[in-house]
Amino acid sequence: MQANTRHQVSPYLVFFIIYNSQVGVGILGFQRTIAEKAGYDAWIGVLAAGCLVQAFIWVSYKLLGKVDGDIIDVHTILFGNVLGKLFSFFIIIYYWLASVSVLLGFIEIVQVWMFPTIPSWILSSLLLILVYYSVSGGFRAIVGVSFISFIFPQLLLIFLYIFPLKIAHFANLLPLMNHSFMDMMDSTKSSMYTLAGTEALLMYYPFIRDSKASRKFAHLGVLFTTLLYTVSSIVSFTFYSEKELKTTIWPELSLTKIIKLSFLERFEYLYISMYLIIVTSLIALLLWCSSRGLKKIFCKKQKYTLLILSLISVVISQFIPETFKEMLDKMITQMNLYIFYGYIPILLLVITFLRRSNQNG
Amino acid sequence: MVNRLVIWLFLILLLSGCSFLPTNIVNEINMSQGVGYDLAGKKGIKGTIVFPIFKKDKSSYNEVKTALGHSSKEIRTKLNNESRYPLVSGQLRLALYGKKLATNGINDVVDTLNRDPSIGSLVQMAVVDGDATELLKIKKYKLENVSIYLQELLDQNMQYGLLPRTDLQTFLFQYFQIGQDPYLPLLKKADSNIRITGLAIFKDDQYVTSISRKDLFIFKTLVDKNRNGLRQFILENRDKVVLETINSMTKYKVKIVNGRPEFSIYLKIKAKLQEFAPSKKQRQTFDKKKYQKQVEQELEKSALKIITHFKNHQVDPLGLGAKYKEHYRGFNEKQWKMYYPNVKVRINADVEIRQTGIID
Amino acid sequence: MKIKNGDKDNSKTSHKTNDQNWLERLSKSNDFVHEHTSLREEEPFWISYYRTLISSDILHQDVLPYLQEPLPLEELKSRIPVQEIILTRDEEKIIQSIMNGSLAVQKQQHDKECLLINIANSKFRDVGMPTMESSALGPQVGFIEELDTNINLIRKRLPVPELLVHEMKVGELSKTRVAVLYMDGIADPENVNTVIQRINDIQYDHIQDSSYISSMIEDNSNSLFPQSISTERADRVAAGLTEGKIIIAVDGSPNLVILPVTLMESFIAMEDYTYSWIIGNFFRLLRLLAIFLSGMVTPMYVAIMTYHYELIPARLLETLVGSRESVPFPPFLEALFLELMIEMVKEAGIRLPLKIGQSLGVVGGIVIGQAVVEAGLTSNVLLILVGLGTLASYTSPIYKFSNTIRFLKFPTIFLAQWFGLFGVFLTFQFIQVHLLRLTSLGRPYISQYPIRSTSFQDLWVRLPFSMQKENPKNLRSQKKRKSTGTGRKPEPMNDFYE
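The joint structure predicted for all components is written out below.
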């Protein structure tokens, strides 16, 4: 069930795919949500969430390694053609909803910060045309985009963090561990939304050459993003006072306001525009997963499934009410938790059990 | 073929839809660079907006306009009625608040600075002892771009002078920080000049008291890691010693005694001698050890003086409460407010005169 | 596999069945000569040749004197002091040889048997200087419009039998000689096959230049980016060959085509290798920066001036706004106007006769620019930026690439007008995705992905020769290393190392 070797990518590139799939619009605003209950101890919650994601990577590699295919193959093997495809359909819908959530989040940022009057459908069409162009280049092109979305923003991030760190109040983080276990759990749960995205692995696993060797790169990728998120939350925590952070919707973007160079200042405009690179590559990956899934389920050409998904996304971005977005985010967090941290491990147990009994019988 | 046609039509539609985005072409907007707010009547605000008019041959000048209103954006809308191009606030560099308005609280007018995405967080803020409008309208600065002038005046004094670092970002930080009150520079119109006269201390968003220029040195030492700063000490025997800081470090230590916090502040200053005039009117070698001791005492005295002053006014610009909170898990804001007026603070200054210039 | 230097494809297009005698077919052209060598009809020989292809000196001095007595053709073959003489009855071969400058000798006018004496005009043009890819240092040898000379130049640089030349005839009417050059044992045979296959598949009436071939065999002919490098420098071609690249040389074109290439190679000048590696790198990275700026500066100006005035620092504000104070157009039109003007000056400068062109370049660039600013139609800041951007685009040693960059400016300016900075980055990302999808001979075109260790030996930067040991991996060269030495030099002689 491995993909054609011509379409496969080297194992080390998994690092970049993982990075790309995890970093979306979440990083611009997660500092506020995680600090809601756990206060300035929330960065520990990020680390904890990172560990959970590592565990998830381990589970998915075990699971996919057993069937040597993607999640749809797992489902077909376990539940047969019809029921398996039904289950896969839910996961595919998750990918698509996640892409819509990222799209809506980015559109909101562009509208609030740059062009308050621009209609949503124009922005979403522009982004999705770009996404369509990347996805139609095949998986290799998507990995390339992921790679680029890693390189460019890293250069900017270094810049971004140097300025606030110059005036950081590290004492803000004190006293450490001043919140209850439940509060910490809450921050971990909120971090899961921003750290979500590794699930895409369940779809692109067959496209990795020598996929078993790629596991260490996947773990490294998660480690990198976890550290990135931790650093990012610490930078925000030391820059804002706690009550101030709670009033700031996009702490990371507001941070960039203090960057000042002799030829350019107010980097947030540049930053948001550059963020387009990250956002389109993430949406491209997610839409690739969902359109490929639909292609496999309904045996239609990926061209059509992708077009349909994009068109629905454009329509949704234009016509949904404001409350839907919050609901969507909440729903994705829930779905992410239940599907990938509840269902998938169970699936692994089931398949291990079945294989063992098969061998015995 | 039809497919392709549809795509092109869609693209054309898409792109034509966007030329409706409102543009801000730089020479077709009036960029307000400075604003000033004063109290007018009981609840009204008198707002002043300064924006430059640029000319090609560098004969640019400032336009200063004033209007009454209830909110800053209402004032902007009113002033739009009398300006050639629409007023925009993305280039704002300076926000001044009249003392009277500041006494009533500036949160209402600061809110828009915080909320408007087009306003940066490096805006300089200051309280004007008197009328902000008057200050901005000084004739002398008509051709000089008063907003940039003032912004750089403040910047310069924060970097090389005695002012502690403040701007919109620090103000918001301190305003929202539990156990700390914000402070802003205090400006005054003196004859036809603008002068920094001290520091305005806020309680939440209300101006409460100020500290004079004399005390700025010790205040800056207490709150900032300052590089520069000149301070003259006139010692008990009328010896005059002028020191310039090379490097200073401040450490706050919190101890809980009987459930109440006690603070010890350690000042560590490395300085160089800039001027020395012994009272005997006779050239003498500078005795480092002796004067270090005396200067330390002088510093401790003045530090205690301003802290007592703060305690009397129930304001906490040093952020003692925040420090208490950092070191004590059972922090309770109400309780802290009760303790504060009687809280014990010890100052421990350690001055090291590193250099005496090129003579001794 | 190996490709023999055979000619099985040479006559592919001339298979037209004809009932006509070759003589009749060739006599249609005016420069074809068919005459008898003496007055008596039945005595000596009939000769036929193209007046324009042969050297009349050789004909009159070395050949004609022998054609006075009636001898059998075999006898004649051994007598005439010309190297290349063939006796044949094959019509195709006869036509081909005559087309290549041979003289055909027959006993009777309609004899099948024919003696072909090669007296082609071999007076080659002088080797020229590289005009479009000039350099201050390094060899100053450029290719010319003659295939044989060009191959000769390459062979002089790589005198090894591994350098193979595979010659073909392309073009229904032009019958242009196209040679594919590659190093046997280094170049990936798959690449060689692809190139030969694609050239064989070309169905077109005429080939006037190597660019015809390169654009016909490109992977994506809709792309703005050149997926092959066309060069007139012998050193670039020789260096490429040793790394496993494939060269296409076309008769009549001074530009040779190098395949496959990556994007970064458009930033490499052969001059880089003549400097110390540190200085060479500085210039290489400078070119990268220049090209990036060239594409971005004007659109950024349009975006910031139209939408994002917040980005301008206070001290720059007066300069920027003041310079635009009296300009009646929006920044978009202003920028478009200036960019088009510069392009027009450039275009006219190339088309105009040499002497006028030189003076126009100066007039157009300076006088019109100054006048436009003084008239208040554009701001002088923009004039500087546009001038700088155009200048910067020419830092790329590959002419086609700098054209691409300057062309790309226009859509970017449009998007900058529509969406500000957002639009600028939209085009930026679009170009990146396009580059990612692009391939040159099936190899990824963009060189930053996937990352390979060899791109840091001699692509992005150029390490000292002692550290450039491998051939670029993306070419799949059969020869992996270009240096087998350790590269270690004896320690410098001074007291410290004793």
